[in-house]
Specification:
The protein has about 450 residues and is of the alpha/beta class. Helices cover about 35% and strands about 15% of the residues.
Amino acid sequence: MGWQRKVLSATSGLAFINGRSRQWWRAGNVVSDRGLTGITPPELPPFHYEPKPYKGPLADEVLEKRKRFLGPSLFHFYQKPLNIVEGKMQYLFDENGRRYLDAIAGIVTVSCGHCHPDILDAIIEQSKLLQHATTVYLHHAIADFAEALASKMPGNLKTVYFVNSGTEANELAMLMARLYTGNLSMIALRNSYHGGSSGAIGLTALGTWKYPIPQGEIHHVVNPNPYRGAYGSDGKRYAEDVKDHIDHGTSGQVAGFLAETFQGAGGAVELAPGYLKSVYDIVRQSGGVCIADEVQSGFGRTGSHYWGFETQGVIPDIVTMAKKIQFNTFGGNPVCSAGGLAVLKVLDKEKRQEHCAVVGSHLISRLKDLQQKHDIIGDVRGRGLMVGVELVSDRTEKTPAKAETAEIFESLRELGVLVGKGGLHGNVLRVKPPMCFTKDDADFLVDALDHAISNL
């Protein structure tokens, strides 16, 4: 391309016991207040940690305050929302001390586990020295973090820009593509999610996350979905649609192409094999740059590779990443840079990529076995600990099982498993836990899903 490839990075993060419920931790018990019948519900694996006593406001009070003082765009999971007050590694605790398996990692944010001691130590120690210093001054933390990120990138992806979120990273990537090429047209995939700003909403192609606002010169091409797509797993045929779209829908010159390798909010869809290699060639021949959105798939989660785009055998011109470094960088302030560097060190020290490969293979194998038992499971897909389970009411027609998914979602919560939902119709269970998730956790999750489906 004759220019230095760039890396854009942003991170964002998130967020008990009152003495009357400590037996939840000790026994790992679960209760259903919806009257599940049949086999005995599975129990959470043992976990030797006792949450601190919780004396704060309870769920009803928190929900009322949210309704009064926060915007109506905020939504919550579950008919009766959970008040989560503490987390430790792959588990969360509610106001009553009940333990839950966090199988969605704060919407794919908490890579190393909740309150990992190494990361806490790094953040606390830096906070004692200096919490913020603008980049017009020198401080080693931002440079150390950038160096560590660059060391993880292939090719000439060696320049880092710190921003505040995945949304902002994708906005900046689009701006850079347009300024560098002098072209306006951007290409993105249907079923994609790239953020909540006006520009990122334009790149997004999921009706759930769209608003009736101008989205700019952005073209959405056919999604190379091996399960639902017209061409199955034939990546080259999907790529032909990109070429056709450029020829007919643009001047023939584009600014760039932006895609997730593993679609997150779209339901853990891995792009058809060979797709990105073909598309990158087409886009570059049309004057554009190629951008990989690694907000959810990066940092070893897929197990087989450190970055999602590596599964397609390509090197992008720009990579965006975000919340999987567990919190917000605020453009590279010292505290967040120290924490981000600690996350990278923990991932290496604890060999989390290899761990994801082993545990993820076990989880997917068990889910595929469950698919043979329950017709409602239309597809099990993913790599490592980035997994989707698509539920359908008719396997032949692949009719989205929307109502059944909602019921199973609630049942899993009652059994002690917190998963996500995704896909255009909300019929995909998203399983993307902290990367310390174990085989015992995987077995519990699958057993709980089996129980929930059996009691529909």
